[in-house]
Design a protein that fits this description.
Number of helices: 14
Radius of gyration: 20 Å
Largest sheet: 8 strands, parallel, barrel
Strand content: 15-25%
Low-confidence stretches: none
Bound molecules: beta-D-glucopyranose
Structural class: alpha/beta
CATH topology: TIM Barrel
Order of helices and strands: EEHHHEHHEHHEHHHEEHEEEHEHEEEHE
Oligomer: single chain
Number of strands: 15
Mean pLDDT: 97
Distance between the termini: 10 Å
Number of domains: 1
Helix content: 40-55%
Strand order of the largest sheet: 2-3-4-5-6-8-11-12
CATH superfamily: Glycosidases
Length: 419
């Protein structure tokens, strides 16, 4: 394969990504914590101490910098910052100020996500993401958080994968809230937080088309609040983008899914400073919805097809429709074979290079994830990290891919196949 040296733009963001609930540990005031602990839960295990990053952030950020990265994308936790309606925790905000300051000490640009799936219990129990007023509440929290942290934020993402629920639903997944085998679990979780089960609507579990509309409104209000806050950081939204590929007879269905949970968000992103592209694989669409992986194609620990080229397709599509710069806010692979991780990222980065070569404004690439962390319903089994975490001692150990990608980040260049 002929390659040539490709140099990325000088201020390209080379990072890794995590989310509060997946790495911090002890996120006990969040809706997901309750859902994890009630019998009958679809979560194979609770998040528990996660990677204890709430206490170990300084070591993790130093490690990231030593490896060669210049960016860290992480989320701040609404459930800690606003534990009760209108009650803001100065201590929690100060904690995140220290995390941000630590990034700056190590010359790491902090990319801060304000919502990454989890919400405070009180939000989820009072209409949650099915309810428009959650959009206003979210914007108020963003405004308060940015007033405290804004001068240290490098880049802000309002919501992580604001289209994911709708996307999964249109691919054929039933919202957990409506799954007959989960009704008791869900009602008990609502009871434990003192909510009426009908008003309990955690993101990704609730009526997904209602949640989609709340998410769109929440982004609009939050972006406005962040733009008028202290600090001059770019603001955008992050989307879950499968590369939608129509199989014979699936064209209409593919177009419908694309319109309802990709295009509508691209259009919403038009006034933003960037769009966050998050891609893991392609999704094959038949006349009735998603099809299983194609026979013979390698699959990952998530059961996804090994399809690194999906990233290039989605960067091109997002840039063409949203017409704003792109940051790859997540791309990665759950695998226990680190050489397959390197191959996946190598091919994905080749695609990023081709996009830049063609004049698309791509500002950064964040690998998901820095650490082997809490992979939601799948618990700690699928390992996405560049860095392994000992579940007993929390000791971190670098995988070869950490050094490999860190070296690329430091050089800002790859030997690329640009055809
Ligand atoms: C999410 C992450 C998740 C990752 C891997 C994305 O959908 O933003 O929280 O861990 O994919 O599944």
């Amino acid at each position: 394969m002929p390659t040539e040296r490709f140099t990325f733009p000088a201020n390209f963001l080379w990072g890794t990504a995590t989310a509060a609930h997946q790495v911090e540990g002890g996120n006990i005031n969040s809706d997901f914590w309750v859902l994890e602990h009630v019998p009958g839960s679809p979560f194979v295990e609770p998040s528990g101490d996660a990677c204890d990053q709430y206490h170990r952030y300084a070591d993790d950020i130093a490690m990231l910098a030593r490896l060669g990265f210049n960016t860290y994308r992480f989320s701040i936790e609404w459930a800690r910052i606003e534990p009760e309606p209108g009650e803001f925790s100065r201590a929690a905000l100060d904690h995140y100020r220290r995390v941000l300051a630590c990034c700056h000490e190590h010359k790491i640009t902090p990319v801060v996500t304000f919502h990454h799936f989890t919400s405070p219990r009180w939000v989820a129990g009072d209409g949650g993401w099915e309810e428009k007023k959650t959009a206003e509440r979210f914007a108020r929290y963003c405004e308060r958080a940015a007033a405290h942290l804004g001068d240290l934020i490098g880049v802000a993402c309002t919501i992580n994968e604001a289209n994911l629920g709708a996307y999964q639903y249109l691919l054929g997944a039933m919202p957990l809230k409506l799954d007959p085998s989960r009704l008791e679990w869900f009602a008990e979780a609502a009871r434990r937080i003192g909510a009426d089960p009908n008003r309990f609507a955690p993101y990704l579990m609730c009526d997904q088309m209602k949640a989609r509309d709340t998410m769109l409104e929440a982004h609009r209000l939050a972006a406005a609040a962040l733009k008028s806050s202290r600090g001059k950081f770019p603001v955008g939204i992050c989307l879950a983008l499968g590369d939608l590929q129509a199989m014979p007879g699936g064209e209409q269905r593919r177009d419908y899914i694309k319109a309802e949970c990709q295009d509508i968000f691209y259009e919403a992103a038009r006034g933003d400073d960037f769009i966050g592209v998050q891609t893991y694989t392609r999704d094959r669409i038949g006349p009735d919805g998603a099809l299983p992986p194609e026979a013979g194609v390698e699959t990952t620990l998530m059961g996804y097809e090994f399809w690194p080229e999906a990233l290039e397709a989605n960067i091109r599509q997002a840039a063409a429709i949203a017409k704003v710069p792109v940051i790859v806010t997540e791309n990665g692979i759950g695998t226990d074979k680190d050489d397959r991780r390197i191959e996946y990222v190598r091919r994905a980065l080749n695609g990023v290079a081709r996009c830049i070569r063609d004049g698309i404004d791509v500002h950064g690439y964040c690998y998901w994830s820095l650490l082997d962390n809490f992979e939601w319903n799948s618990g700690y089994r699928p390992t996405f990290g560049l860095v392994a975490v000992d579940r007993e001692t929390q000791a971190r150990s670098l995988k070869p891919s950490a050094k490999w990608l860190g070296d690329i980040a430091r050089a800002g260049a790859i030997d690329a196949d640009l055809r």
